[in-house]
Design goal:
This protein is α/β, with parallel strands linked by helices. Helix content is 41%, strand content 16%. Strands 8-9-10-11-13-12 form a six-stranded mixed β-sheet, with helices on both faces. Strands 2-3-4-1-5 form a five-stranded parallel β-sheet, with helices on one face. It has a two-stranded antiparallel ribbon with strand order 6-7. Helix 10 packs across helix 16 and helix 14 crosses helix 15.
Length: 410
């Protein structure tokens, strides 16, 4: 695995470059430390513009005191951590609206909060901005390949070709426990030991709690907030149950709801929605809970990597893939009231792909039972099923369902 200090190409870069040709504002969002600043400073197609970060006190002071003057100081510019000066957004909107004709790619903005979920920002930039999400590094980005897993190739291929497609992947074998522990943030990926990564994670959490979170909302009790973070990370892959979280953390339920929303807005928590097209089965409608960076989630929870962390690792790759698709696919899960469940579902224009994730090295026929139920329920839209496992063999485990090592797909 590549762990030196050279820049690791990102799958989102191609979408950003295309967006610069058509949109006056391109907004790059994602959690702190996913590599947004590095991307905007290193990618050649962004190299010809001034770069300002509002983490810098002088730049932030200029942006706050004279936002109109700030945005007109260069014909094109990149503004990093733009959520630190919310009033700057209005000045950017006005500058773009005054352009006749509109200048594509005039502003590149980055933020460590999900600006789409910040009502004031999303309303101000409506119709003027293209949004691109930068998730933690995927496995193939870590390998220097600058891409996500082979989801597009699978969806666009006939199920008959899946076996050869998967077997033909020229990628090294992976240890999912190592991938989970190393994280998808560029910095801890390069650190030499678990202890060094633990120290980095602690610094990350402290910065997030004491600075980034305060940009979004005033939190009176940071200890309560961190306790909720840990409780959430102990429930990876489970249904979101606010009453249970409130009971276990001794935090009022209304506060739990608010904290969960803040975690999602700041790209820490991921709520996975259910696939809810009902045919003959009564379906569960609650969301499932995951973490943006599975390595940070493992650190907050403590303990050893489990199958839920492998599931979260696969989901992270799917989210990074989803957000660079035009048109965008949906990533969901499927669960019935009788506890039949498919961990992940891709819903695209072409149809449905069901994905089960098992940490075992030798999955048996029983491991595919829920995928079979999903296949039978949605046979008219079912493209195929994947049983991703921790072993090395690729084989057909059932009609239309391929068992494959997770590392050949992700």
């Amino acid at each position: 695995m590549m762990v030196d200090y050279q820049y690791l190409p990102r799958a989102a870069s191609a979408l950003i470059e295309r967006a610069l040709g058509v949109s006056g504002i391109v907004v790059l969002t994602g959690a702190r430390q996913t590599g947004k600043s590095t991307l905007t400073r290193i990618e050649p197609f962004l190299a010809d513009r001034p770069y300002f970060t509002l983490d810098d006190l002088e730049s932030r002071d200029r942006a706050v005191r004279a936002p109109d003057e700030f945005v007109r100081s260069a014909p094109r510019m990149t503004i990093d951590e733009v959520q630190r000066a919310p009033d700057l957004i209005l000045a950017i909107k006005q500058a773009v609206d005054e352009d006749r004709p509109r200048v594509p790619g005039r502003f590149v903005l980055t933020g460590s909060a999900n600006l789409l979920l910040m009502q004031r920002v999303s309303e101000t930039l409506a119709g003027r901005a293209t949004y691109v999400s930068l998730w933690p590094l995927t496995r193939r980005e870590k390998l220097g390949l600058g891409r996500t897993g082979i989801w597009t190739e699978l969806i666009e291929s006939s199920i008959r070709d899946w076996y050869d497609l998967v077997r033909g992947q020229d990628v090294p074998r992976g240890d999912w426990r190592e991938d989970v522990t190393r994280s998808g943030y560029p910095e801890p990926l390069r650190l030499p030991s678990d202890e060094a990564r633990a120290l980095w994670f602690e610094g990350y959490v402290r910065t997030y709690l004491e600075r980034d979170l305060q940009d979004l909302a005033a939190i009176a009790n940071l200890l309560d907030f961190r306790r909720l973070m840990r409780a959430a990370c102990l429930r990876l892959g489970n249904l979101v149950n606010q009453a249970e979280l409130a009971r276990d953390t001794q935090i009022p339920r209304v506060t739990v709801q608010r904290y969960l929303n803040l975690l999602e807005t700041s790209y820490q928590l991921v709520r996975l929605e259910p696939y809810s097209v009902n045919r003959t089965k009564r379906l569960i409608k609650a969301a499932k809970l995951y973490w943006s960076d599975v390595g940070l989630g493992l650190h907050l929870a403590g303990g050893e990597p489990s199958g839920a962390h492998l599931e979260n690792l696969v989901l992270g790759d799917l989210l990074a893939w989803r957000d660079i698709q035009i048109p965008r696919a949906e990533i969901l899960y499927w669960r019935t009231a009788t506890n039949q469940e498919v961990d992940l579902v891709i819903e695209s224009r072409q149809g449905l792909v069901g994905i089960e994730v098992k940490a075992t090295r030798r999955p048996g026929p029983r491991s595919a039972q829920h995928l079979q139920a999903f296949r039978d329920e949605y046979r008219d839209r079912f493209l195929g099923g994947l049983l991703l496992h921790g072993g090395e063999e690729t084989f057909w485990i059932s009609d239309g369902i391929l068992a494959a090592p997770w590392w050949r797909i992700v």
